[in-house]
Amino acid sequence: MQRIAILYDASQAVLSTFQLNEVLDQILMIVRDYFHLESGAILLLDKERNELNVRLSFGIGPCPTMVPVGKGITGNAARLKRPIYVPDVTKDPRYIAGTSGTMSELAIPLIVRDEVVGVLDCQSNQLDFFDRETVDLLTLFATQASIALVNADIYSREQKRAQQMEAIGAIARQATAVIKLEELLVQLCRSIAAHMPLQGAAILTAEQDGTLILRANDGTLSPGIETSQALLPADNPAETALERRKTRVVHAGDAGAQAVMYKGAGSELLLPLVSAGRPLGVLVLAATDPTAFPVDDIPTLESVADICATAIQNALYFQQVEQLAYVDGLTGVYNRRLFERKISEELDRATRYESTLSVIMVDIDHFKRVNDEFGHLLGDEVLRIVSQIFLGALRKPDSCCRYGGEEFAIILPETSGPKALRVAEKLRNLVAEYEFPGIPRPVTISAGVADFPRCGATRDDIVRAADESLYIAKQSGRNCVAAQEDTLGEAKVANQ
Ligand code: GH3
Ligand code: MG
Ligand code: MG
Fold first, then answer.
1. Which helix (H) or strand (E) holds 122?
2. How far does residue 330's CA lie from ligand 3's centre (Å)?
């Protein structure tokens, strides 16, 4: 009767909490205090590896923390799914020597709905310590303990799920708050790293040719790849993940795990970012723990990737619309609106870094005549061709803008007046030499050059100076290039 009371108390105690650590504590406390054992341990089953890991113990000296299922007395209890009692461990070859003084051992599998979840290992320093009744009682207690362990496991999963859902909500809210692509990518990495137990998060974006570039991270990348825009080696796991549209876990030390970019990362999850069938990039989540990304968590993390992909798609769309607002419909070069914006930005920058900047104003000569003689459509074609000639001859940082009608304004960052004059001269030459289809004579341009800081400090100063130079070029007979007196020491007309 007293023993039934013990069992009742013990069950109450282990079932009174959902916290795994508390359940483990309670189980071993009961084994030690109610059953007066010298040592004991709870081993939990790692199903994937088919091994038992010691989660908590008392009175046990140095002994293996992991036992494969089928090995030792505990491993055999798990394999056979029934308690194994060894009254004299010295006579049992299965016994793995550990704690000195142990004479008898009882290993009881922890089973719920016919599935082994672990083993309760009980040891005594006395030979044949466990009588029939104690074995039965401990076995009954183990049943209660198994239920408590499973409850705690369900609870911790639920809690984790709830935290994940909360994190997804927060990430989604932050994702919709930013529309500029570069900012969005960094924001996504930061909020993912802030809301999830990770070492870091990064986003790789797919370039047009399919290569992946590291575009953003949460700021915790290892110094070696701190530089954004880092290109990944070909055939890296991230590339295959995106190609196959399949989430992939890589572990440090895996063959081809070059994409493990975080120093000290034990594992990385590579989540393809795909929106409306379009491959946009890869979300990289890094963790120090090699087992940080269990299969159960993948769907939740994939929904985080979906949120990212949608937000990135929106930002790309916004970028496209924004770009369209700055592009001239007829020629495809930038429009005047971009010119106004760009020149202000570049002047700010040149002022800050005390560098130079030039503007070339271009006007097609006698364009009215071209229209009159060959028709408006051909006139349009001339505008398109001239634009292409300019684009082909300018450097990447230069901006070619259609300023109005048949006038162009070209911004040359970090370029002094004399150098800009040479560029203008090159453009003039290219146009003059071009044989425009349907126009049996050369089409020419005139150009005026001005530079910062020599021609002034403001946008208006520079544009006015370039306009005046253009006027001088026109006055000098057209098909030529001119610069302000300030630029070259005296008003100069080149190459009449
Ligand atoms: P100048 O050498 O002094 O610059 O003479 P110009 O004939 O080029 O100058 P003007 O300002 O008299 O004429 C500009 C012409 O450009 C008038 C206008 O019809 C034409 N134009 C402006 N925009 C377009 C366009 O989009 N397409 C076409 N085909 N013609 C245009
Ligand atoms: Mg004009
Ligand atoms: Mg003209």
1. strand 115-124
2. 17
| Tens-binned pLDDT, residue by residue, of the chain (496 aa) | 577 777 788 888 888 888 889 999 999 999 998 888 989 999 999 988 899 999 999 988 766 789 999 999 999 999 999 999 999 999 999 998 777 789 999 999 999 888 999 999 999 999 999 999 999 999 999 999 999 999 998 898 889 889 889 999 999 998 888 888 989 999 999 999 999 989 899 999 998 877 888 888 887 765 444 444 556 666 788 888 999 999 999 988 777 665 556 778 889 999 999 998 899 999 999 998 888 998 888 999 999 999 999 999 999 999 888 888 999 999 999 999 999 999 999 999 999 999 999 999 999 999 999 999 999 999 999 999 999 999 999 999 999 999 999 999 999 999 999 999 999 999 999 999 999 999 999 999 999 999 999 999 999 999 999 999 999 999 999 999 999 765 554 445 554 4
Q: What is the CATH number of domain 197-324?
A: 3.30.450.40
- Does the structural domain 2-156 have CATH classification 3.30.450.40? yes
Residues having CB closer than 6 A to ligand 1 are 330, 363-368, 371, 376, 379-380, 383, 405-406, 474, 478
Residue with tokens 């009254």: 87
Common-topology check for domains 2-156 and 197-324: yes
Query: Domain ranges in the chain?
Result: 2-156, 197-324, 336-494
CATH assignment, 336-494: 3.30.70.270
367: CA distance to ligand 1 center in Å? 5
Distances (CA, A) of 172 to 176, 184, 200, 215, 233: 6, 12, 18, 20, 31
Report in angstroms the alpha-carbon separations of 140 from 21, 31, 217, 328, 390: 21, 12, 53, 82, 88
Q: Quote the CA–CA distance of 445 and 407 in Å, as a whole number.
A: 9
432: enclosing H helix or E strand: helix 417-433
* Catalytic annotation present for 406: yes
Ligand 1 atom nearest the C-alpha of 380 is 29
